[in-house]
Design brief:
Radius of gyration of chain A: 19 Å
Strand content of chain A: 15-25%
Shape of chain A: globular
Helix content of chain A: 25-40%
CATH class of one domain in chain A: Alpha Beta
Strand order of the largest sheet of chain A: 3-2-4-7-1-8-11-10-9
Number of strands of chain A: 11
Order of helices and strands of chain A: EHEHEHEHHHEEEHEHEHHHHEE
Largest sheet of chain A: 9 strands, mixed
Oligomer: homodimer
C-alpha cells in the first residue's frame, strides 16, 4: 500500500455561533489555504465533506467557494465518526491512485440533526445519547466499583487541558465537586460529564508520498487504519463496560502500523461522556479493564497531556462532523512539536480514536513522523 | 491499479410507494443476497449507502439489517450522482487494499430532499431542477435549431424502452404528440420531458480481482473511471448547450479504460430531462455538437436499445441515490447478455454517465467483460 501523508490543516475556534453551514465549512478550509499559500488548488483531485448537516451538495459548494474543480466531490456521514471515515476514504482515493491530493473538511452547527439517534429504538423513546451514556456509566461503575468522583476526574482533566487550546469551546476549569454539583441529567450523568454540541470546522489535506515530501518539511504519515461497525442499535453491543468495535479497530490499526500500544506517545480518544475515556483507554489496550480511571488520575496529577491534550470532546466541544478531523489535527501538531502549551514529550507515534453511537462503530488511526 | 469487478447486484421495482428509507434500502440488498447465496457476509469489508435522505447512520443500520459487521460503513451524498460516487469510493477502498469486498446500496424515497437545489441561488427563487432544464432546453433548441418534437423523441424512445424493463416506474408508451400535449411546466418543458422522482433501491457488490473471479462465472470489470466537478452553482457552468464536466469525465474514463467512444456498445446516460440525452451524447463524444437528436431518432426508428436500454431516468424513474447504481446494474446485465427484451447486440464494452445539478458534476464509468 502506498504511503499517504498529511500536508496541511486548518482549524477555527469551536463556538455556539449560529452560522450557515457553508460559512462554517469554508472557515477552516480558508484558514488552511491562508496558512499554506504554496498549495496549488488545481492540484487538488478530491474534496470530501464530513457532516451530519442536512444540506446537500456541500462538497461542490465548498469547492466553488475555495476555487477548486475536483474530480471527486461528495459528502460522507457516519454520525460522530464521520470525520475519520472521511480521512480513511481520502486515504483510499490516494492509495488506489485515483487521486494525489484530497481536501477533507468537516463542519457542524450546534444544532446538528446527528445528535438524536432517531433510528435507534433500543431504549424506547430515550433517543438522546445521554441515555446510552447513562447505561454505560451505571454498568461500568458497578462492575469495577468506580465512583462518580473518579469519572468526574475525566471532566476536570479535560477542561484543564482545554485551557491550553485556543480553539476550545470551554474557557473554564472545574473541580471534582463542580462536576458532581452540576445539573443532574440522569441518575448517573451530570451536565459536566457530557461533551457539548457546538459549531465548528476542521480541514486537512492528505497527499501521496511524493506530494507530501514536496509540500511538507515536517511530514506526518497515516501508518495505521482500523475500523469496525458492530451494529447500529445499542442493544446489539456485546458489552456495556467495554468498546468492542474499538478493540477490533485498534488491533487492526496497530497491526497495519507495525506498532504496539506501548509505542503510542500521545492519543486523542472519543470522550463524548466521562465514562467513555476510561472505557476507550481499556479497549485500546493502554491499560487493563477497570484501570482506566486510575490511569487518568495519574496523568491528571502529573499534569501529563498524553491523553486528549487539546481537552478532548468534553473540553473542546463536539461538532460531530468536524470532531475526527480536529482530533487528527491535534495529533499532527503534537508530532510536529507544534502544540505549544499542550505539547507532550517525545511525540513520535500518535493515535486517534473516534467512534459513533455508543461505540457501535469505531475508527482508530495511527500517525507517525 | 488492481482490478475491481462486480460480483453481484440486486434491484427492486421503482414505485411511488411511501415506505421508510430503511425498508427501501433493505429491499435491494436483500434481493442481492437472495440471488447470491454463496456470498459470505463475513467477507464483506465495507457497506456504503448512497442517498439524499436525511436519516443518519444508514450504513450501520443496513449492515445490522442484513447481518454484516463491516470495517467501513458510511453514507455518501452528491445529489443525483451519489450512486456512482459511491461505486468509485468502493472501487478505491478495494483498489487501495483496505477492503476486498464492498456492498454499495443506493436508496431514495419519492419525496427526497435532494430534489430542490436549496443552495443554488443562481436562478433566484427558481430552485427546482426544471428551471435549469428549461434554460438548457431553450439554449440548445436555439443554438442548433432543434424543435420541441425532436426533444420529445427522447421521451417517446425511453418510455418505449422502459416497457421492456420490469422495474421501471412508467408502464405506458407515448407518442410525440402526447409529449407535446402533456402539462406545460415552463415555456420549454412539458411534464413528459421530465424524469420523475420515485421510491427505489439498487445494490451492487464490488470485489477484488481474486474474489470477483471466484464468485462470478461471467465477471464484469470497472475499467474506466472519470469524474469532474466544475462548480455547484448553475451560472458557473461554462456552457448552456453542452456538459463540460461530462466531457472531462468521459475523456478520463475512456483513457483509463484504453478505449475510444467508438468501442462503447451500450450506454446509460443521465436523461433527467429530454434535452439532457442529446447534450450528454454530444459531450460524451458519441456524436458531434447539435447532432444528438438525429442520433436518438435513428436509434428510435431502428428499435436500437444502445442508449438507455432500461428506459433512462425518464422511463425508469429517478430515485436520486439509487440512479447511478441502477444504471450500472443495467450495463452489467447487458454485458452479461442477461438483459432479456432489452438486450443489445454484441455488448462487450458499456458506459455509464451519471451527473448532478445541471451537469455541474459528472461521473463516467466504463465497464467491460
Amino acid at each position: 500500500m502506498s504511503k499517504v501523508g498529511i500536508v496541511a490543516y486548518g482549524i477555527t475556534p469551536f463556538t455556539k455561533e449560529d452560522q450557515k453551514i457553508e460559512t462554517v465549512l469554508h472557515s477552516s478550509a480558508n484558514k488552511l489555504f491562508q496558512k499554506n499559500p504554496s498549495i496549488e488548488k488545481k492540484d487538488i483531485d478530491g474534496v470530501l465533506v464530513s457532516t451530519n448537516n442536512n444540506s446537500k451538495y456541500l462538497a461542490p459548494v465548498l469547492s466553488e467557494m475555495v476555487g477548486i474543480q475536483p474530480k471527486i466531490a461528495h459528502s460522507i456521514e457516519s454520525l460522530c465518526n464521520s470525520g475519520t471515515n472521511s480521512l480513511v476514504s481520502a486515504f483510499s482515493y490516494i492509495s488506489s491512485g485515483l487521486a494525489d491530493m484530497v481536501l477533507v473538511s468537516g463542519a457542524e452547527r450546534y444544532d446538528s440533526p446527528g445528535q438524536i439517534l432517531e433510528w435507534d429504538n433500543s431504549r424506547g423513546e430515550f433517543k438522546h445519547p445521554i441515555f446510552w451514556a447513562s447505561i454505560f456509566s451505571k454498568s461500568y461503575k458497578r462492575k469495577y466499583e468506580i465512583t462518580d468522583e473518579q469519572l468526574a476526574t475525566v471532566s476536570v482533566k479535560n477542561h484543564k487541558q482545554a485551557q491550553a487550546n485556543p480553539n476550545a469551546l470551554s474557557k473554564k476549569t472545574y473541580s471534582i465537586q463542580d462536576v458532581i454539583n452540576s445539573k443532574k441529567l440522569t441518575d448517573d450523568l451530570r451536565l459536566l460529564d457530557c461533551s457539548r454540541p457546538c459549531t465548528g470546522s476542521a480541514s486537512i489535506i492528505l497527499a501521496s508520498e511524493e506530494i507530501t515530501k514536496k509540500n511538507s518539511e515536517n511530514p506526518v504519515w497515516i501508518s495505521g487504519i482500523g475500523q469496525k461497525t458492530i451494529s447500529a442499535g445499542f442493544t446489539k453491543n456485546p458489552s456495556l463496560t467495554s468498546m468492542e468495535s474499538t478493540k477490533i479497530a485498534a488491533q487492526s490499526a496497530l497491526k497495519m502500523s507495525k506498532h504496539s500500544i506501548e509505542d503510542v506517545d500521545v492519543a486523542e480518544v472519543h470522550d463524548a461522556f466521562t465514562v467513555c475515556e476510561p472505557m476507550a483507554l481499556e479497549s485500546l489496550g493502554f491499560t487493563s479493564p477497570g484501570k482506566g480511571t486510575s490511569m487518568i488520575d495519574d496523568l491528571h496529577k502529573t499534569n501529563n497531556f498524553k491523553i486528549n491534550p487539546r481537552g478532548g470532546l468534553i473540553g473542546t466541544g463536539h461538532p460531530l462532523g468536524a470532531t475526527g478531523i480536529s482530533q487528527t489535527i491535534e495529533i499532527v501538531q503534537q508530532l510536529q512539536n507544534n502544540a505549544e502549551k499542550r505539547q507532550t514529550d517525545k511525540a513520535n507515534v500518535g493515535l486517534i480514536h473516534n467512534m459513533s453511537a455508543a461505540s457501535t462503530s469505531s475508527t482508530v488511526l495511527v500517525l507517525e513522523k
